[in-house]
Amino acid sequence: MTGFGRMPRKEDARFVRGRGTFVDDVRLPGMLHSAVLRSPYAHARITSIDTTAAEAHPKVRAVLTGADLEERGLAWMPTLSHDRQAVLATDKVRYQGQEVAFVVAEDRYSARDALALIDVDYEPLDPVVDARTALDADVPVIRDDLEGKRDNHIFDWEAGDASATDLLFESADVVVAQDMLYPRVHPAPLETCGVVADHDAVTGKLTVWATSQAPHAHRTLLALVTGIAEHRIRVISPDVGGGFGNKVPIYPAYVCAVVGSMVTGAPVKWVEDRSENLMTTAFARDYHMRGELASTSDGTMLALRVRVLADHGAFNCTAQPSKYPAGFFHVVTGSYDLRAAYCAVTGVFTNKAPGGVAYACSFRIAEASFLIERLVDLLAGELGVDPAELRFRNLLTSEQFPYVCATGWEYDSGDYPKALQLALDTVGYTELRAEQERRRADDEYLGIGISFFTEAVGAGPRKHMDIVGFGMADGAELRLHPTGKAVLRISVQTQGQGHETTFAQIVAHELGIHTDDVEVVHGDTDNTPFGLGTYGSRSTPVSGAATSVAAQRVREKARLIASALLEVDPDDLEWTPGRWSVRGAPDSGASLKEIARAAHGDVDLPDGVDGHLDGSCVYNPPNLTFPYGAYICVVEVDPGTGQVKVRRFVAVDDCGVRINPSIVEGQIHGGLADGIGMALMELMAFDTDGNCLGGSFMDYLVPTAVDVPPWELAELVTPSPHHPLGAKGIGECATVGSPAAVVNAVMDALAPLGVRHADMPLTPAAVWCAIQGRPLRADLAIE
Ligand code: MCN
Ligand code: CUN
């Protein structure tokens, strides 16, 4: 393959043979193992910790507590959202599973055994579990470690124009309103999180192998947290078995492993188990939303008003761009031409695990997109208009691009009505509605759900977007070696997205060389340029653009070298893939391979051209890219049991130019499965004591092959006008867009039974309760 198109993933050669190297595969001489003692309580004061017996265990080499870390100034670490998080608890524990002590031992089993020998005295406190009561006057203050903190309030944030929105609501013929919960879910990557930390006391160098979506950001943060100079830290993120946002933050045990290595003088491995991953690492969503949509009687949507209560758990660790505490939630008008919008988000602390961004969310667009798509369906029901028809009346048209939405973001390109029409044609909408009518007469409940979404992916620009002060721009460095083989070094980190393939394709496309001749290096801070990493589907929009520009620079440098080699003016040279040749004399030219050779040889180079054949770029994107899609889900619901069966799922996506359509489709398949999971089964629930009820895959259900239908995909290609390849991101699109299609389908099925709304996940119990008119509050096991 010498460019864009379908090709098998290069990395699969090792993955399908079981030859990947994941963090847990890293084994260093003399390496020690570790385990974390975690709080059984959601909220308790620690009165004493006795580690004597654990220290006496013959295979234990070190036991760390919060007090030990305090001596080093490491009991707390800064979070990605300007809060602080306990590394090991000193004063109180604030969620179930919080880190209390860290044991380093000769093997993993002894480390685990020794946890039972640590004696902690807790004085249980009332937990705050329901975000809706977190700001009440009589509830305990969770973050009394923060000076002067007297409540559980984190932030208030608003966007849009409140008074313009209110005016439109006053003049509207119809208003629909709905409270909805986008419940707490977990990204649940196949590989859990972990590190191997190796501190060399002689050289002062710290090497950390980590499951990391952002190795450079992690190195900088580790430097800031530990005080070790940044240039002495090397973060290596080897193969990563799925991230989905879960591997963006630094977790307390990473810091403990570093300290453990310093204390013992040996490398220390820490790898969490499934329950630790589910119960304590970055969760997603947990947004209590109230949405109101105003419209004229003929279905022209006017304005949107939204209030959100965001449950951030015990520490504010959400990884949002610094200027946007609620992420890009305010791209809340979705794909519609609304005149005004206003949204206000309040963040609160609760006694739950921290996190708050993750799981293919594009910085909270998942929640925003779900909200408006549910409201559009409710409005369609209210007006008695077909939901597809109502969308056609309000979708942006292609002439409106670039389009500035009501909250100020500039959407780059698209043809929305065409995408919706393609989805309707693919599913056979008219016939399906006729079938639904027929079957309703027989008390059978077929539902058809539409959702249309606009994503905003590829953060920066760095002027607007940074994380803890680091602007979101990414580097790429490309070098052609003397034999013409290329090595590309990038700052982003694949976790299953296939970067080793698609980034080689970008180089191949720009230079006309074969993808086999391009090696992609990533995941090692000593060998790659700085950049903020892979999340927010930013790799292709940002690092892909950097790669394209770097390759174009190599091509230009090759032209100058070719001009010396061929003794002609550079302006007389003409590019055909892989070769510069003399205009009008195609036989007289030099291939890139010959030019690479000459660049390392004795050719007299033109003035200002240094030797070797390389190019680099730090790409600061001028805007986000705005992929979008139209999804249609068809379900059958059994009203007797509440069981939902997804019969069909049609997805039309437009992510601009597709570098590798097979990989793009794989991303969409995965995201659609995510969406069905969240809509129908995934839920991180808690009981009234704050016990997490989702600690295993028996309790936290993720979809398997039997839960998903054969996907029916179709595509449009509207290039992004500002991306050098015309590509937009795709990694999170289907996860963001699909839950609303599923929920809309179930609500459509149940409409004859008078059901208007039910919160996710639509488990059989939730559906059955909705039919009985008793909505289930599933996120809290109370009643
Ligand atoms: N691609 C393409 N043409 C396009 C757009 C993308 O060929 N127009 C290719 C890319 O080159 C890349 C893949 O599709 O190989 C995804 O690209 P992109 O949309 O740029 O997203 P990222 O690579 O930045 O991946 C991040 C995104 C996020 S944020 C989550 S969360 C998620 C997702 O990717 N996590 C995943 N998909 C995942 N897929 C797997 N297997 N594992 C995860 O953890
Ligand atoms: Cu929000 S999950 Mo992805 O951006 O790593």
From TrEMBL:
Keywords: Molybdenum, Oxidoreductase. Residues 245-320 form the Ig-like domain. It comes from Actinophytocola oryzae. Its cofactor is Mo-molybdopterin cytosine dinucleotide. GO terms for molecular function: anaerobic carbon-monoxide dehydrogenase activity; copper ion binding; iron ion binding; molybdenum ion binding. It comes from the Bacteria. The keyword Oxidoreductase applies. PROSITE patterns: IG_LIKE (PS50835). Signal peptide: none annotated. Pfam families: Ald_Xan_dh_C, MoCoBD_1, MoCoBD_2. This is Carbon monoxide dehydrogenase large subunit apoprotein.
